[in-house]
Amino acid sequence: MNSVFEVQKTIREILLKVLDHHSLEQLNKIPDGFSNNLIWNIGHCISSQQVLIYKLSGLPTMVSDELIAKYRKGTKPEGDVSQAEVDEIRALLSTTLQQTEKDFDNKVFVDYNEYTTSLGFTLKNIDGALSFNNYHEGIHTGIVMSIRKFV
Q1: pTM metric for this prediction
Q2: 116 - beta bridge partners?
Q3: Alpha-carbon gap, residue 29 to 34, rounded angstroms
Q4: Alpha helices in the chain (DSSP H)
Q5: Which of 1, 41, 125, 126 has the maximum number of C-beta atoms within 10 A of its C-beta?
Q6: pLDDT in tens, 76-117
Q7: Which residues lie closer than 8 Å to 56 by C-beta, 6 or more apart?
Q8: How does pLDDT run across 35-59, given as a tens digit for each residue?
């Protein structure tokens, strides 16, 4: 599973660079033709990872229920985020990945509640969830790369 975590680490490093090279105004801007912004996509990656990996394993998440609700599937930005929230998301990009890898190595993920994604793919265990999460974060990283051209 090391390669799964290496892929996620690479994705998260790309997202960190986006945070580091864009102003708060740019992170919050929703370009014409898009329904969300840079910071929403990055927050959504964290929120979804916590749901796909922890909640579906019956484990507590590392982030607040409020953050999960704000960035969950089907939401969109309801207003500009503060610099403090950007800083929290920046920190969570690293800490959630590091803790997930530790938890996986320590065999914390015992149970998994089967879940069929909106794409029709059924997640049956933690291995499938980790792989699918990388696919999902890759999609949103692609969206981020598109949005940044317009902000």
Answers
A1: 0.95
A2: 122
A3: 10
A4: 2-20, 24-28, 38-49, 65-71, 83-105, 126-147
A5: 41
A6: 999 999 999 999 999 999 999 999 999 999 999 999 999 999
A7: 112, 113, 115, 123, 129
A8: 999 999 999 999 999 999 999 999 9
